[in-house]
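Lecture 7, part B: from sequences to assemblies.

Below are the input chains for today's worked example.
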Amino acid sequence: MKRMPLPDKVDLREVGLRDGLQMVGQILPTQTKLDWCRDQVACGFSEIEVTSFVPPSSIPQFADAAEVLKGAKAIGGFTAAVLVPNLKGGIRALERGADKITFVLSASEAHNMSNVRRPTDASATEFEDLVTERDARGLKGKVALSAVIATAFGCSIQGEVPEDRVLDLSERLAAAGADELSIADTVGYGNPLQVRRLFAAISTVVGPLPLAAHFHDTRGMGLANVIAAAEVGVRRFDAALGGLGGCPFAPGATGNIATEDCAYLLESIGLSTGIDFERLLQLRVRLEEWLPGERIEGRLKQAGLAKTFLSAA
Amino acid sequence: MKRMPLPDKVDLREVGLRDGLQMVGQILPTQTKLDWCRDQVACGFSEIEVTSFVPPSSIPQFADAAEVLKGAKAIGGFTAAVLVPNLKGGIRALERGADKITFVLSASEAHNMSNVRRPTDASATEFEDLVTERDARGLKGKVALSAVIATAFGCSIQGEVPEDRVLDLSERLAAAGADELSIADTVGYGNPLQVRRLFAAISTVVGPLPLAAHFHDTRGMGLANVIAAAEVGVRRFDAALGGLGGCPFAPGATGNIATEDCAYLLESIGLSTGIDFERLLQLRVRLEEWLPGERIEGRLKQAGLAKTFLSAA
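Predicted structure of the full complex, as structure tokens:
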């Protein structure tokens, strides 16, 4: 199952513990979350979004956020990222020792208002303030700040999201000092042509700043969009085990791209993920045990690896 | 929901009534098959594979093949295609008035033996004989003969399928007088790079002969493969409503790419399918009523059209 490592590597980041669980009705016990996290590290994942620092009143699933982060740090050996929706959450994440903070705002004004109850520009200002806070604590180069532009390909509330708006935000967040820009198709509106065009345009605006892609598979185009992004040089992808997740403002949204299928796709086209597929499929089985009755997607678990599949890991 | 028609059109062919039903346990009544067929035509589909002329003992679902073909011809307004696994089935399809015959053989020797119990070269000879039979009946230019190369991207029985074998078969079937070559990823082993490479290579060998792509979504790469094939000029795609289907020799195979998701993807990248999406989604609802308890896939039905979606139809 091994072949010579290819020069081209890709970072596949697990977001199931955050974006995946966000939409799951049942509260997963903290210990189970940490078991999941530990298993995922053992599979070879080097970055995991372990939780979200949001008010427990808005998403009870993350009431144990500080405890999960603490447990994740104790596991070690990977970058423990935490999602935050505002400066307050960001400062909390800095104080609690997150390795990386993913700060989310929406290119769609309507979505930003629904999601974090303030205009997008106000959120961008909070990101700038978060950079200042981090640097003032001497954490520059120690805690990475990723700026996530949600609904970058369209919005289920307002419809079209102008590409110029995404480019302006990209420029502003890059200038603020983001260590990474993550471009998110929160509601599954993107198509491969659009993905190629937008990532290429953002690259032109922000230069060598690393770009990440966060796709949902709401209308089945998730993995086609991964290929499109990879083709224009994107090497950081988010995915959720079993395709868990969705968005509270995307009706019928069927969740993130499935980690196992995305990993398989990336390896198939010669992009090395460093992931142990046998372990990953074992973890995928455990996920179903942990979340009985939940709709869990992903085709690789059912079909298994192809006889012709050679992992580049 | 309309925009100016784009110059680039694509033929999306429904194979649910054949490849989809092949793996379904319950026998769909003939009248229901014809209702499905009629609805699909009303959605704008110009080609439908309506049944398979195989021995009823091997697939009882198709015991009514002649009756279905007769009913489909009575509906009219579209190309009624019939799949056949050998010369005998082909002659029966000619006699019964099929508009098009899709003759399937496998590039994998092991798969061909399992599927039709003869070596691949023997099947190719039968295709050559079928061309002769058709022409002798004065049906050249009236009944199209499509040669399907199954397991062209790998085989769940024998593993690797050499690309040279696929190219040699392509050359032979084209020389025999095929009106179309259909390249099938029967077991979901193909990846986008492989798809691009193989279709480009086949084009070089067979020149302007139309190529069709038949993808399964066994490991989630089906729609990414559609994009890859479209990029190298393929404009004919098979799909099954609700992603029905599979292959008896592909363990855990989760079926064809879903017609509704594929149509949506193609329109999204500016390839006009001529399909009425509202009607198609209504038909998709009926499919679930017709096949209670069956595993039916496809994301578009759950998520609905994006607000930003403009059909090119």
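Note for the exam: The longest helix of chain B spans residues 120-136. Keep this in mind when comparing with the next example.
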